[in-house]
Design goal:
This protein is an alpha/beta fold. The chain is built from 13 helices and 12 strands. The strands form 2 sheets. Strands 1, 2, 3, 4, 5, 6, 7, 8, 9 and 10 form a 10-stranded mixed beta sheet that branches.
């Protein structure tokens, strides 16, 4: 019996130094029934020429190969175009600078096939530098030698949230609402996009937006194994803190608009309970703060005096603190 098709997609941009290693890691996947679709988003370097140079070897490996380039439109538009080209039951989204472990796709598909109530499965990430050498992070997420690193993997860095050790909380909407902690290197069901639609430029933190939407309808599984080598280099967008703060605010504000239109009855029970929980809303930043005893979120007493009651969820207004 043939295994389900997996669509592997890459939105590539100015990664001439890394794209070949990324593609080689996909060729080396132990899961065989896969298609590879790449769109080069108007790279100004040799990224697409390197991609094209690997087209013949990829055609021998994958059941379908679709490589294309066009003027730059940004990550959001590029991923949407990629998704519309897919035929698979499952999707693996690869960054054009990361390196997948050989069993990433196989383990992801195997779990999802056996657990229909889960929409996404992810493993842990190790860190590699510009030369593919494994590194770690210090307490401030600065690159440091692995032997002396405070954090050797992404899960170690985020374990302070304790979600990785608490399966009942991992990947739930009530935890993802406050920020994304899902590692890179995940396999998800393609049907998800029939429920949630496609990416929007109004949510510039695409991964965070995606995780919040998935968690409304499916459970998310963490497997405590290294699935991916995450490339840590000078051009990581996460290093631009000012831009990151701006994108966090914009993505959260877009999520508010989605919650206003949400049909709660079609979501998971924990989402429905979360939306009925009393909330405090900062009048300027609009970030929600939930009760500490329920979700473990810091309860800022000094902030309470500056809080105003604002109607965000029309169906749950009666649950707001005054």
């Amino acid at each position: 019996m043939q295994k389900p098709l997996v669509s592997i997609i890459i939105a590539a941009y100015n990664h001439e130094k890394y794209i070949k290693e990324t593609i080689l890691s996909l060729i080396a996947q132990t899961y065989q029934n896969a298609e590879l679709i790449i769109i080069d988003d108007g790279s100004s370097d040799k990224t697409f020429s390197i991609i094209k140079s690997m087209e013949e070897v990829c055609k021998k490996r994958f059941i379908r190969v679709d490589f294309s380039t066009r003027p730059n439109k940004g990550a959001c538009q590029t991923v949407n175009e990629l998704l519309k080209k897919t035929n698979g039951k499952y999707i693996y989204m690869s960054a054009s600078d990361d390196v997948a472990k050989p069993t990433l796709v196989e383990k992801g598909v195997s779990f999802l096939e056996a657990h229909q109530d889960y929409g996404l499965v992810v493993g842990n990430d190790e860190f590699i530098d510009e030369n593919s050498k494994r590194i770690g992070w210090d307490k401030d997420k600065n690159e440091t030698p692995l032997k002396t690193a405070k954090y050797k993997t992404f899960a170690e860095f985020l374990n302070k949230k304790n979600y990785f050790n608490t399966p009942a909380l991992f990947g739930t909407y009530q935890t993802l609402f406050f920020g994304n902690y899902i590692p890179n290197g995940y396999v998800l069901r393609s049907e998800i996009f029939n429920k949630i639609g496609y990416y929007s430029p109004d949510a510039p933190l695409e991964d965070w937006w995606l995780m919040m939407q998935i968690s409304k309808y499916y459970k998310i599984k963490y497997i405590d194994e290294i699935f991916l080598s995450y490339r840590w280099h000078s051009k990581n967008t996460i290093k631009n803190k000012d831009l990151l703060r701006k994108n966090i605010t914009k993505t959260k504000e877009y999520e508010y608009t989605l919650l206003k239109k949400l049909d709660e009855g079609k979501t998971l029970q924990n989402v429905q309970e979360f939306l009925k929980t009393p909330v405090l809303i900062k009048t300027k930043t609009k970030f929600l703060i939930f009760k500490k005893e329920i979700y473990g979120t810091p309860f800022l007493k000094k902030t309470v005096l500056k809080i105003a009651s604002i109607k965000i969820f029309s169906k749950t207004k009666k649950h707001f603190w005054k």
